[in-house]
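FIELD: query
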Amino acid sequence: MGSILAAGTLGLDEHGSSGVALPFYIAGGGIIASIIGTLFVRTQEGASQEDLLKAMRMGTVSASAIIVVFCGAVVPMLNIVAPLKLYFTIVVGLLSGIGIGTATEYCTSHAFYPTQSIAKAAETGPATVIIQGLAVGMFSVSPPTIIIVIAIVVSMSLTGVYGVAIAAVGMLSTLGVTLATDAYGPVADNAGGIAEMAEMPPEVRDRTDALDGLGNTTAATGKGFAIGSAVLTSLALLSAFQKAVSSASSDLKVDIISNPKVMPGLLIGGMLPFIFSGFTMLAVGRSAGAIIEEVRRQFRLGLLEGTVKPDYAACVDIATKASLREMIAPGIMAVLVPAVMGMSMGPEALAGLLTGSIVSGSMLAIMMANAGGAWDNCKKYIEGGKYGGKGSQCHTAAVVGDTVGDPFKDTSGPSLNILIKLMSIIALVMAPALKSTWTIEA
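FIELD: result
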């Protein structure tokens, strides 16, 4: 991202080759910092959910601190304009990532009120669980959004659009440890499933449940990092697109009021994340239905009685084929719509489309990821003995919420990050063709 902007009109004249090199230095230092940061993750037997969260948070904070020191030594050595401002831009990106992670932890961990309120709502049935979970997800959009806004304003004021890209690189510099915490969730979940199927002692299942609940929170935190960086990256790509389609005598103007092409682009861009999410949600439903039918078929053959062996390969085959087949339509939409919009209505409409998709896509992604994580941890909270514990009516209601939340947090929410970045990249690739086809009035 930094190289794209530095190589274009946004940074080469001002920062030169050092502007291209800086993101690579940050990313390289981040790899080492992430490895060291994992060594700071420590906990003790019988740790509470708060203690586990602090232990995982320590890895991210430690890696970020190492990056701050590393960049403080590297940035002054580069032949770059305003090195102090660029250094503070990197720090802004790091702090924004930590802030988004902390806000996500509060909204999704069953150690805090939002998830506990969903468990309380389970007393009156699954409908109120869904309502409360959606409300928690909607409210959870505000803290990350405010943090991202502050990061954009500060980085833009310090070093312009190039600074926004560098802030995104800074936020992602500790990707090694944040991605590890994201991947940690499914590992802990599967470990709990193995412990239950193997009928291991209750204390083993208690440990895996605690780690699984932590994994749901860390997974949501990782998705928060992803959407935050996606917004910053897409903004930088949008600025690069604007420069690429503009000539020396004119500039691309995204004027909502006087330009009749911008508002249609904004509306269509705002619609696309919802259509995309609809495709992915239906894909999960159809794939799950096919697997259920296969399992029922094996039951009818005598699986429960032990007369036949389970055919695992059939279920894996269904899931694999569905994952490829079901993404054809949303993938074509993500590529085709920006191309059609740009060639038929021009760069102004395409800029509006990108802007609308960034706004609605980022909000929808945060809501889905956090609501799904909160529903899952609500179930874990009840299984831990609250509101009647496992097998109670409250637990049954929470399972319904968790079932709805799984495609929210594991499919539709994370995929929106790809959507908004992919459309921005497609627009940037199309820029030379648009510049030669359309004339932008000065």
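FIELD: remark
The chain has one domain: 2-437.
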